[in-house]
Amino acid sequence: MGVQAVAGGETIGGRFFKGGQFIPKEFVELKMGMTGRTIDETHKVREAAERATFKNLGHAAAAIRKTAARSIETSPEPSLPGEPPHTRRGNRIRRSLRYAREGKERAVIGPLESIMGIGGERLEEGTEFEARPFMGPALEENLDRFASGWGASIG
Known about the structure:
Layout: E1 3-5, E2 10-12, E3 15-17, E4 22-24, H1 42-71, E5 73-74, E6 86-87, H2 92-96, E7 97-101, E8 107-111, H3 113-116, H4 119-125, H5 135-154
Parallel strand pairs: 5-6
Antiparallel strand pairs: 1-4, 2-3, 7-8
Helix pairs in contact: 1-5
């Protein structure tokens, strides 16, 4: 065990020592300095989020389109108000469903007017009769899945 001399009266480690006394090394306060630097890399996180959004937006739109198409049943009877529409014979409604990305952060999904006319809007919104929505419920059904997928793809 080493010792150190104390210059005129000092308090070290909670104890007072008179000048000229020798104290054990355990009482000597250790003073340490630390320097460092930080690097701002938030742009990397932002870029990763943009890449993930671009990639996942197309996947999300395709999944919503597929969910909406599956919800449309073939039946001679009309669907109940509030339920997805029925189609009598074919796949006209299903075939009309398309999706497209608009820019980096937006996608549009729904029936093509060139195939459905304004019938798709009338079904979804109920503008002329009671609504039989199919796009809104498809979006709702997929929201939780998209949220977890986006977070995982950023890294």
